């Protein structure tokens, strides 16, 4: 049985890119006579707004999707803390006080997910008065697990190598867990067997596969679909204020028809599906 999930963060309204991601996850579950889950990722500090979760449910219903709701991330903090302590006690995490500005000043190289942290705080005596994050010692972790693999429905069998992204944050300064740790633990807890998400998260999957190996978690399959782009060739995003599903719904647009059009590869004017 195929179990998929759609896991939005309530820090802004959903847009067409979210709709496409939800439709892909929903339809893959239905094809596998399985379950499509909704999980609210609500640990983004003060940016999380509880009222947006209700808006998300209305948007999914408008698109004609049916789901099973699982516990929100804010109910799972103990599991994140336990996993982080496990990794920390094994010497696989290290504290980091660097700000983004400080990292940019070091002129680090760019990886697939942005700036690659150069390991400045590794083995360094830190100012304990500063807010700190916990970073993943990826090299040490890879040495512990050896070769590991993951399976993508579109790309095939992949050897996990998260070193391209550097020592990513596992526990943020302002949050009990980063996306990498929380999503990996949640997918295991919810019995997700197929993780569907955009190709912009392809390299993050390497980090998640490594966490699964270290923490003894089950290994799902993955499906990294294309991304919706606007007329400027930019990925639709909350930060770019892409038009919301809620606005379309309130304006009387037919959500069922919109969903069916997207399934057929037809999108509103100015929107295209890109494979990278």
UniProtKB/TrEMBL annotation:
Q: SUPFAM superfamilies this protein is in?
A: Nucleotidylyl transferase (SSF52374)
Q: What is its EC number?
A: 6.1.1.-
The Glutamyl/glutaminyl-tRNA synthetase class Ib catalytic domain, residue ranges: 3-246
GO molecular function terms attached to this record? ATP binding; glutamate-tRNA ligase activity
Keywords of this entry: Aminoacyl-tRNA synthetase, ATP-binding, Ligase, Metal-binding, Nucleotide-binding, Protein biosynthesis, Zinc
Q: InterPro entries, per this entry?
A: aa-tRNA-synth_I_CS, Glu/Gln-tRNA-synth, Glu/Gln-tRNA-synth_Ib_cat-dom, GluQ/Sye, Rossmann-like_a/b/a_fold
An example Gene Ontology cellular component term from the record?
Answer: cytosol
Q: Which GO terms describe its biological process?
A: glutamyl-tRNA aminoacylation
Give the family from UniProt.
Answer: Belongs to the class-I aminoacyl-tRNA synthetase family.
Entries under NCBIfam families matching the protein: PRK05710.1-4 (NF004315)
What's the protein name? tRNA glutamyl-Q(34) synthetase GluQRS
The source organism is: Qipengyuania soli
Tell me the name of the encoding gene. gluQRS
């Amino acid at each position: 049985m195929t179990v998929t999930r759609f896991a939005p963060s309530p820090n802004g309204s959903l847009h067409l890119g979210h709709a496409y991601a939800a439709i892909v996850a929903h339809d893959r579950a239905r094809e596998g006579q399985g379950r499509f889950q909704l999980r609210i990722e609500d640990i983004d500090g003060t940016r999380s707004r509880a009222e947006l979760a209700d808006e998300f449910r209305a948007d999914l219903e408008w698109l004609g999707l049916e789901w099973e709701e699982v516990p929100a991330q804010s109910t799972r903090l103990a599991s994140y803390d336990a996993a982080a302590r496990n990794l920390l006690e094994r010497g696989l995490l290290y504290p980091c006080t660097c700000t983004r500005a400080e990292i940019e000043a070091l002129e680090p190289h760019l990886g697939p997910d942005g700036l690659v942290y150069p390991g400045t705080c590794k083995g360094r005596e830190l100012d304990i008065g500063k807010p700190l994050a916990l970073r993943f010692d990826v090299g040490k972790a890879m040495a512990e697990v050896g070769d590991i693999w993951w399976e993508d429905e579109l790309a095939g069998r992949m050897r996990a190598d998260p070193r391209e992204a550097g020592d990513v944050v596992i526990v943020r300064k302002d949050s009990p867990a980063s996306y990498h740790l929380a999503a990996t633990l949640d997918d295991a807890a919810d019995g997700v067997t197929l993780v569907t998400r955009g190709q912009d998260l392809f390299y993050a999957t390497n980090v998640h596969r490594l966490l699964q190996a270290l923490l003894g978690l089950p290994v799902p399959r993955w499906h990294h679909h294309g991304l919706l782009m606007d007329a400027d060739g930019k990925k639709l995003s909350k930060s770019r204020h892409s038009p919301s599903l809620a606005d379309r719904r309130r304006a009387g647009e037919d959500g069922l028809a919109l969903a069916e059009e997207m399934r057929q590869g037809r999108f509103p004017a100015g929107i295209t599906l890109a494979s990278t």
